[in-house]
User: What shape does this take?
Amino acid sequence: MLHEMLPYFWVDMSVYPGNSGGPLIEDGKLVGVVSAQADTPIDSAPNVRIRVPFAKVIKARHLHSLLETQAKKDCRDL
Assistant: This one.
């Protein structure tokens, strides 16, 4: 899950609705931003999913390029 080419990784931590967009800090450095929580279907109720305590985190280095792209778009709109 830490493959260099992946823009995200999974973290063994509980997240809750509203945590998306929250920073993940390690040793005082931003390493990523929470983007989702893992879930899985229930066998007896296929339309129901339960949350699993794993967070999908977008790597910080990918966020920099997204922010730069957005900043360029914002400048064009001025």
Observations:
- The CA atoms of residues 8 and 38 lie 13 Å apart.
